[in-house]
Design a protein that fits this description.
single chain; 601 residues; alpha+beta; two-stranded antiparallel ribbon; 19 helices
Length: 601
């Protein structure tokens, strides 16, 4: 446990951390010196933020984590044998070899310990509670509220990955503490209720949203409302609600409604992002010039600087890098790209037709023209055969080509030694269309990991409210707002079960490659409902064990699409209840047996 408590987590960062987190911290300084100094106290708190979850920061590890974590799910696979996520998806690790368990466990425990040190040591004579105009009002109270939020979030992360977790409410272990050696975990529902209570205690203490752009990235009241919403949604879900307590769904719905109400009364409310810029015919690829509004709305939500994006409730830094773009872009068409994340056909088929129907239920869907007249978010999220990308003003516009006729007749984006696709697809989300590949002009693009955004609150509300009372007008309004932003028709006239299925599908396409799918399929216990053998007769989008892709052949100048499995793609290997959770690191359980180990590990 010493390693957990005392070592700072390693940060895999790129250049250009911006705004509130852009502060240095000297970890060699004594606590007494730090908390006797105003600047050092502020820097200590900024350092506590560095333990926030970040699904993009790890891309700098080009051997083992240079792909989306959705590769741990039915949404994608990784084209690179060393990527950890494929082996997690196929259950190839033990508790002593699991590559993420130790890091996630250590990161969150270290963050919790630092929060508790800050809360115990912050000095009201150094950081005062004086009344001033603007965001710096009552800093002592606000800083403590920020630290309590971060501590609650790090507890939430422990529950999300490991289930039961200890509640360290103010505890700072020191070397030799016997209490540390008797540490016990609380059940997930108890910890999630504690997280929600922590949010309640601070959500109206902090400004709902900061006025100054310079405070982007700083915990706000809105972030506390959002964490409470997610925590109570997870608590109400089947994985953690083993007794089927319906009142927990009521509380989850109310938590989302509280955000919506507080947001409506805010002077600068959060809202779904819509693109209001201009598109240049000369500097943008034709796929963007001709894109429908729904595609642009969704695409630009993830490449617009988050402090200029009203949808972002909390984000994790701004990295200036082209590593992320190159990690996603198709392998051959764009100089320097080495696409490593391959979306599955399972995910692609989850995008409805523009008529708002599943592809298997819409007679207008043509499997030989599969990307026409689909949910506009598909074009904003995924590169497929025929996708057009690259800047024409630099002569870099290209058409993605993943065809394979033979070893000597294949598309430039099919496969290579360092990158390629096993499924016929690459990720477009997060890729900036302004990127210039010519090395004379190549510069880092701005990227940020969005921890909470307003679309999640709306879909949390729709899901929870449906479990309480079926698809009410309010539930429809919430999900339909998200669909309208994407240019999709409204849902109507559904049963409770039908609405549940549609909201779950909505979450899948709306939050693709945002680290939501891994938790959603587990909290819904979808793996309990079918097996790799029983699901084969279902539509691909409904299969969660067997993974599929597309093969493209060129015949008489036109593509022919064949759908099926690829022997290079390992299907999901899921044992219940073992794979509901990560294992606790073997070394920690050995050191502190009272922690126990998750079932099956």
């Amino acid at each position: 446990m010493k390693r957990i408590i005392y070592l700072a987590a390693t940060l895999l960062v790129f250049s250009g951390c911006r705004k509130y987190l852009d502060k240095e911290y000297d970890a060699s300084l004594s606590e007494d010196k730090v908390f006797a100094n105003t600047t050092l106290t502020k820097e200590y708190l900024a350092n506590v933020y560095t333990y926030l979850p970040d699904g993009l920061g790890t891309f700098s590890d080009q051997q083992y984590m240079n792909a989306s974590r959705d590769c741990m799910t039915d949404n994608a696979t990784a084209y690179w044998g060393l990527i950890y996520y494929n082996k997690i998806r196929t259950d190839a690790y033990t508790s002593s070899s699991h590559p993420l368990a130790s890091g996630f466990w250590t990161n969150n425990f270290t963050g919790i310990r630092k929060c508790n040190i800050f809360l115990n040591k912050i000095n009201s004579s150094v950081i005062t509670d004086r009344e001033v105009t603007g965001d710096e009002n009552h800093l002592f109270t606000r800083y403590k509220a920020e630290a309590r939020f971060l501590r609650a979030l790090y507890h939430f992360e422990l529950v999300a990955y490991f289930g039961a977790a200890p509640i360290l409410d103010g505890t700072v272990f020191n070397v030799g503490d016997e209490e540390m050696l008797n540490l016990k975990r609380q059940d997930p529902a108890t910890v999630l209720a504690w997280v929600a209570a922590q949010c309640d205690s601070i959500k109206d203490v902090l400004p709902f949203r900061y006025a100054s752009q310079g405070n982007w990235g700083r915990v706000s009241g809105a972030a506390a409302y959002a964490l409470k919403s997610r925590a109570l949604l997870y608590r109400a879900s089947a994985l953690n609600n083993t007794a089927g307590n319906s009142s927990w769904w009521t509380e989850a719905a109310q938590a989302a409604k509280d955000f919506i109400d507080a947001n409506a009364n805010a002077s600068n409310p959060h809202k779904l992002y819509t693109f209001n810029g201009t598109i240049s015919n000369t500097s943008m690829p034709s796929s963007i010039v001709n894109a429908p509004a729904g595609t642009l709305n969704y695409m630009y939500c993830f490449i617009t600087l988050p402090y200029d994006n009203d949808e972002v409730i909390l984000g994790r830094s701004v990295w200036s890098t082209y590593v992320i773009d190159f990690s996603f872009l198709p392998f051959g068409s764009f100089s320097g790209a080495y696409g490593r994340t391959n979306p599955t056909q399972n995910l692609v088929d989850a995008y409805e037709t523009i008529n708002g129907k599943a592809i298997e239920n819409d007679a207008s869907y043509n499997a030989q023209n599969p990307y026409a007249n689909r949910d506009p978010r598909l074009e904003a999220t995924i590169f497929h055969h025929g996708s057009v990308w690259g800047r024409p003003d630099y002569g870099e516009e290209a058409t993605v080509d993943v065809h394979y006729n033979s070893a000597t007749d294949l598309g430039v984006d099919y496969r290579g030694s360092a990158g390629g696709t096993y499924t016929g697809y690459y990720v477009k989300k997060y890729v900036n269309p302004t990127l210039i590949f010519n090395s004379s002009y190549l510069t880092g693009q701005s990227h940020s990991w969005l921890i909470y955004r307003y679309a999640e609150i709306l879909l949390n509300y729709a899901e929870a409210l449906n479990e309480v009372s079926g698809p009410t007008a309010e539930a429809y309004a919430a999900v339909n707002a998200v669909r309208a932003r994407a240019g999709m028709p409204a849902l109507a006239g559904l049963s409770q079960d039908q609405f549940r299925d549609r909201v779950r599908n909505e979450r899948r396409v709306e939050f693709a490659f945002e680290d939501q799918r891994f938790f959603d399929v587990r909290r819904w216990k979808l793996y309990y409902d079918q097996t790799s053998g029983t699901e084969t007769g279902l539509a691909y989008r409904k299969q969660i064990y067997n993974l599929y892709g597309v093969s493209v052949k060129i015949s008489n100048g036109s593509p022919a699409y064949t759908y099926g499995k690829n022997s290079n793609v390992g299907d999901v290997n899921y044992t219940t209840p073992k794979n509901n959770l990560f294992p606790l690191p073997y070394s920690e359980v050995t050191m502190i047996p009272s922690l126990g180990q998750n079932t099956g590990w």
